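Quick one:
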Amino acid sequence: MYKSLENTEKIRILIGISTNKQALELIQKAKTNHQPSLPYSHAEVKE
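Output:
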């Protein structure tokens, strides 16, 4: 992750004060799903 963000001027990390059931289910689903969930390439995301 560092390498893809090293030229980024400003990074904001957004966090919440609690995790609801839906967020937990999405995290668990992401851990078991090995396919990329975003339809964008690395270059498109960086752009």
